[in-house]
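tool=predict chain=A
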Amino acid sequence: MKGVTVKVLVSEKETIKVALIGNPNVGKTLLFNDLTGGRAHVGNWPGKTVEKKEGKYTFRGVKVELVDLPGTYSLTAHSVDELIAREFIVNEKPDVVIDIVDASNLERNLYLTMQLLELGANVVIALNKFDLAEGLGYQIDVKALASSLGVRVVPTVATTKKGVEELKQAVIEAARKKPSKYEVSYGRALDSVISKVEEVIVKDPTLSRFPSRWLAVKALEKDEEVLKLIRASPHANEIEKVVAEASEKLGDDPEVVLAEKRYEIIGSILSKALEREEKPVTFSDLIDRVLLNKYLGIPIFAVILWAMFTFTFEVSAPLSDLIDLAISWLGEVVNEALTHADTISNMFFIATGAEINDFLANLVAGWLPSLPEWSSNFASSLIADWMYTNLFQSELSSLITDGVISGVGAVLVFIPPIFFLFFALSILEDSGYLARAAFVVDRILYKAGLHGKSFIPLLLGFGCNIPGVMATRSIDSEEDRILTILVNPLMSCNARLPVYVLVAGAVLGAYATFGVFSMYVLGMVLAASMALLFRRTIPYFKKKPSHFIMELPTYALPTARNTLTHMWERGYVFVRKAGTIIVAGVVAVWYLSTHPWGLPIYWSHVATIGYTLEPIFRPLGFNWMSIVALVFGFVAKEMVVGTFGVLLGCEEEMLGTLLASYVFTPVTGLAFMAFTLIYIPCLATIGIIYRETASWKWTAFTVVYGIILAYLVALLIVSVGHLLGVESVYILNSLLRQIAAT
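tool=predict ok
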């Protein structure tokens, strides 16, 4: 019935709905971009914080809506990702499901395919990484595979777009026809048990929207979501009784028995469709023997991280300098233009002052006719004075030059290092090394009380803590997931990078790169330490983390297109934030730092905030400016740099010099960097932590422990610096340089 409907839709050039599904690391994102041309709408699944990506394309007059489902190994609904994928296929009933299968790992990938067919989905298989499979000596009989499964199979290479047009054609052809009814046979004995359960399930019409055989299989597997449906059925007792009898008859765990039978079926299919050439140890195997070595793995990981940060700062420095020059030039041009505009507007106001005053007096009299004439004249004079002061004097000029250009400009200078950091991370990810890094650090994470799956969410925290927190959904244990969320804000996101680069460049001189790198190391050490502390002291986390099992993807050569796409998608978030949140933030800082208007900054509203909090931060050596920067950093960490730009009234070119002269010494600068790393997460991250934990208790706990830990670490840095006499040496050198200069 569904196939006939789709055929009519296609013939009328209506839109068909297609779902994209596959295991992690099969090239799903790249194939999605190939199909849609990279045009995607990103949101969240209803009621979930899981990212939902949708795209559209038109092929031969047919409009296609493509929905990218979360990467999953099965449809058993052990995790949120698996549940979302299954619910979409069951409830939304897409016209076609594109199942992306890694051609170099058919046995594991076809397990998901079997479950999709059991669910009654209209499947088209995209046999991706076909070139890699051939390089490994695999000979795949595509026709035999398609015949055995009863679906269309299209070989693809997402990195080169090979097979994409053929895949689009196969999708249209599949949408025009009913899905082939593929019934997985588990053998006579097991099929008999499944049939008995199915006979009872079909008695309940409320369950008719699901394939009855699929429900029977899932009930035997003790799928929690399916069991909830059964418990709500009027035939619940009868169904549960039959399921219990069937499970007892099977003897072993039904889920294990069914999984083994699926793999037997897959093995039988591949015996006809796949031939493997015996190959010697590959170069990839030799690399893994070094990178995954028990003793060499961690040092190599540290060296790679160091190389990544060195590359980021060294390569991006010339581009940052160019942006800085452009912003300085823009500031001068705009300032000169505004000076001329002030002169012209002053002349205009003086020449037309009487007319404006009369107009305002008549306007006030019209609004408030009961006022005496002298009151109307007085009110109009006040309005005229305000207009002259605020519209025709230097306040508007100050807003544009000292507020927007200085504040936002100080942040934009750091676009190159952020883009290059994402470029380097994309290379590590696409090459397959990041998965191996997770394997390498698993021993450390386990000893720290974290699950091995925590590595990817923590690593994503280097880019932004928000996707890092959201990625914890892949962790099955609720305790492990919450613990990972609590320590994720300690991972240094890209928003903190401009602060490190600015302060380290200002006060650490030749050791600036090391200072920045040390913040990332400090974040990782603190995350592991706090996880261990929470695991041992908070009863909720007393249970040991479960062991980590993962698949290592095959090494691959990153493509320029894919790497640049990932870099742009992630870096654009920073650029967009600079054009929205940061602009609004620096305008707020400018207003608070310039008002009451006409008074020195030391009498401004923002200085009052700083002076009020200064006694608390005096042991850390932070002056009122740095305190105010931290306060506004709560909104967005990029605001720290923007705040300094506004308060000191300069672009990035002079910002470092002024910070070293009036705000920080090497020790207090390092302490400030550490405080910025650790203290309260940004406002958006706090919101995501609440949504993911559904608990104000854990959200407040994250905020409070972060502030306390930041203060203690910064105090420790300052105390050790004073103990070693670093501060005294710095002050002496500064005095000698000033004497030499005079």
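Confidence is low (pLDDT under 50) at residues 1-9, 41-49. The first strand starts at residue 15 and ends at 22.
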